[in-house]
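User: quick one - fold this with cobalamin bound?
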Amino acid sequence: MRVLFTSTCKPIHVFLGRFLSIDDVSYRFIVDQGPFSATADIPCFSLHFLAQNISAPSIVLEWPTLEELAEELRSCHYDYVAITCKVIDMDRLTEMIPMIRRVSPETKIVLGGFGILGLNEPQFHHIRDGVDHICSAGDGVKFMRKLLGEPLNRSVQAHLPVEVIRIPWMARVASMFASGVQAGYLLSALGCVWKCEFCTTSAYTNGQTVDVMTPAEIVESMKWYYANNSFMKHVFVMDEELLLRKDKVKAIGKLIQEEPVFGLNAMTYLAFGTIKAISRWDPEELLLNGVGEVWTGIESKFSYQRKKGEADQASLIRGLSAVGIEPQLSWIMGDDCQTKENIQEDIDYLIGLEPTTVQLTTLSAFPGTALFKRLQKDNRVPEKLDPSQYHLFGNTMRALNFTHDEQVKIILDTYRRMYEELGPSAMRALGVYMNGYEYCSRSQNLLLSGPKREFFKRRIEHGIFQIRIAIEMAPGPRAKSAMEDLYNRYVSLFGPMRKSVRNLADRALALAEKEMERRAREGYSTMRDVPLKRFTYGGQPGEPIPASIPCADVPLSSLVGPA
Ligand code: B12
Ligand code: SF4
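Assistant: Sure. Structure tokens for the protein plus cobalamin:
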């Protein structure tokens, strides 16, 4: 048996004419933050995860052209071509399926990913009917193993290529910044029990939580990420409501605490959890269990009370920051409850929570969700769907109180306002690490006063050289004063910066100024060519990931436009 795993084919989608869809930090998290704006290269995790956990040899292709995919299919016999898709990819699939049939009629086509939620729409039935197998609603590893006749319960690993996040001009400051910071991904579980009406991931599992990796498998893979990458920011533990499942969090935490080399001193992970779930934890407990960042959906201040409960979300979020856990918040624009009269209050509230990073999106009605069904009845979704709109800034439904243009403007203005008032995310994170450092310094718990305190100290030392840029190039008086306070706080904790760090800070500032002058002349763009990546998997459990590490082969100049 031989399997070809592939993403959908190029061209890769571009949002609002300027954001490359596979560079998420350019359009969420760190948007419009001047010299601190970043760019990321992100592998197709699902494909690697599937390839790595079956015994059949396989090839993974990321972003082939139609011709490159055809060439691969002609190069040898594949029993299966397995494609991952999102709703945005429907038009690409319309071209890919007949091409695959033409070039390799014996090969069976397998489709998976959250895009399968679109297949019940009559408009996309030709895709549903054009493939041989669809992985709907569950774990793709089990699905593929079953299809290939392999044992289902072999243990699962996620030794995947990592996301690489870079501030491109920073590579010139020192070689250590050329490789950026890394984020590892692993899949603890699929789905979520809350079934918020707009949510695709809970619609995918119909409100079930489908466990994919056990705590032992998770921590083994986490360790692998830390052992194989020079600067791991964190591991993203994909599991929409992990924090509600205390037993799993505690089991992961115990294994991290017991890990002799990469314990609390090194390993940190991003966990998802609703406000309701967060309210069930003492923040210190989360810290002790290895949680370094919490991603929670605030959505609008005026909505989704069901998953927020009665808890005071502002003090919960501040409680996380106070012990050193970074809050990453998502917020939605265009909900029925938002009006011209209350939108400012909604935005002020969000900014007042002082998140480290945010994801701001237009409310989208994805096919397969309850929201889609409701709005379809009210004639608020178009009769003919435009797949290319199913993204963070998409225009997929008629909001009651805002045009789509107004929503996008509010989102982009809010990103900018956050930068102007709170300063860059990297420095906000440094503030949270200082909280963590102080908290752990005061703690009687040896795990906190020892390894966790060391963790925060290292993070602060690694990032503090950027403070001069944050102060001198601050986008407004509020950010400037916040950054000056941050620097004074650093001095009171650790004393003045060492000479070597001062030199680094001076050099970084000079280069940042030069970069901003260049941008004033030439503009700033993170658009670039994305070369095909091809990985060979031999089907052996535990084999190292194939050589091609994403990002390495993308020339830096192409990340920042003309040199
Ligand atoms: C990482 C991620 C990305 C990365 C990587 C994307 C990529 N191409 O691989 C980046 C940041 C680039 C990205 C971009 C986008 N993403 Co995205 N992304 C995610 C995220 C956070 C995690 C997915 C992941 O890698 N998990 C780890 C892997 C191992 O698990 P997995 O993908 O779930 O795969 C498992 C199963 O789903 C299944 N499976 C998946 N594919 C296949 C294929 C086959 C053949 C089989 C058998 C099984 C199978 O098996 C796997 C193992 O169980 C999810 C949210 C979430 N909670 O899952 C959104 C999500 C998948 N993204 C989404 C969207 C909409 C986008 C964007 C359009 C941007 C946006 N958010 O507006 C762009 C499109 C980019 C593009 N052209 O592909 C939506 C998809 C919704 C939908 N119904 O279409 C999601 C669900 C977010 C959301 N809640 O709306 N994304
Ligand atoms: S809590 Fe989050 S993941 Fe769960 S259903 Fe709601 S939006 Fe989806």
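One thing worth noting: Residues 548-563 have pLDDT under 50 and may be disordered.
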